[in-house]
Fold this sequence. Notes:
Elements: H1 3-12, H2 18-31, E1 40-41, H3 43-50, H4 54-67, E2 70-71, E3 79-81, H5 86-109, H6 116-126, H7 135-148, H8 153-177, H9 187-200, H10 204-227
Antiparallel strand pairs: 1-3, 2-3
Amino acid sequence: xxxxxxxxxxQKNPFVQIxxxxxxxISEEIITLKLKPGENINISQIxxxxxxxxxxxxxxxxxxxxxxxxxxxxxxxxxxxxxxDIDDIIKVxxxxxxxxxxxxxxxxQNKKCPNIEKLTILADAQKNSFYDNTAVSNDFEFHxxxxxxxGNNYLxxxxxxxxxxxxxxxxxNLVNLxxxxxxxxPGIESLATQHTSIVNAIMPELAEKETxxxxxxxxxxxLYFYNSNKINI
Length: 233
């Protein structure tokens, strides 16, 4: 991260507090694995890179600790990127399952689901995206659009509360699936086509079931790499 990124963010969001911008910038580094699990966070270096005082960086770090992205250890000095936690992975995926399957149900209740054309395009693109490194962006955009199309503000609010954690696990999972293990792991083919099954679901109950099944598959893939120590970080 650098001063240019900070200024670009300020141009788009001129009234956002600096500490919240720093929170977003560090979160992005963690989500994209530029800052890897266990890596030390150098507050002074971040402040220098962004050309700001240390105070908003510290405030952002505290917020990231509360969110679970950064940890402090009693036997170590400083701050560290939180490692992947099996219990948290399961909880996040099951929260996604609850939210997104109900969102699909609500979308299917409409005579014409909002954004169905764009969802169809994203579903079709996902079938081949593992070959051109767009799997993460396609998958995330599809699921986010599905939730935002449901019309229930409370479901959307719940989704927003776990969005960053979900994206972090998704990023790690799909990087592995799109990498050396692509041809070896059976879950890849079902992940690539399940978006289409969701879009094609006409009855509300079927849409709910297909989405829940898709999240279950994604969780199994995440646990596969976690338990086999093949997480690509």
